[in-house]
Amino acid sequence: MRLALMVEGQEGVSWEDWLALAQACEEHGVETLFRSDHYLSGTDPARAALDAWAVIPALAARTERLELGTLVSPVTFRPAAVLANASATANEISGGRVSLGMGTGWMEAEHEAFGFSFPPMKERLRLFRTQIEAVRGFWGDGPHPHLIVGGSGLSGTVDPAARFADEYNTVMATPEECAERREKLARACEREGREPIPLSLDDRLRDRP
Hints:
This protein is α/β, with parallel strands linked by helices. It is 44% helix and 16% strand. The protein has one domain (4-202): TIM Barrel (Alpha-Beta Barrel), CATH 3.20.20.30. Strands 1, 2, 3, 4, 5, 6, 7 and 8 form an 8-stranded parallel β-sheet that branches. Helix 2 (52-62) packs parallel to helix 3 (80-94), helix 3 (80-94) packs across helix 5 and helix 5 (121-139) packs parallel to helix 6. The mean pLDDT is 95.
């Protein structure tokens, strides 16, 4: 089990804060620093939100051991080629310490505020399937970021994860829900001819609509 820290970067976390957090993680044995990928605070729109894929490569250049990544980058924010290149660049800077978490996105107000399209969930799931395949294609067969799919155990995220991802991350689930999702993920991986990929739990406390 890895010791990981998840930070909601859109809640006014400055560059100085990020650097101090990363250095503290390395000093005290925290193996991974994940951050959200949002442009708008969920509590105070005046709070600054530094771009995730600008911060991560900067931290990669200032750390030596710490794994870095997003939980998760919405498919509505960036074209697949941009996301693939940004994450691969960060991974090269870090020497292979970067994870790209991908998800469908959920904060409608954020999309409205910054001009991102926010189609219904069915369309976002279609976009997710298309984008995750495209990102893996852009990476090719060489070294690439660790790919994490974020979801709540629905087939629209589990099936693409079983085909393309290295890990499946679920949020705020009970032990019973985790067991169900692990079994569903294992069956999906079996259909793809793969060994089951790891299931991880993001147990942050957060209110969602």
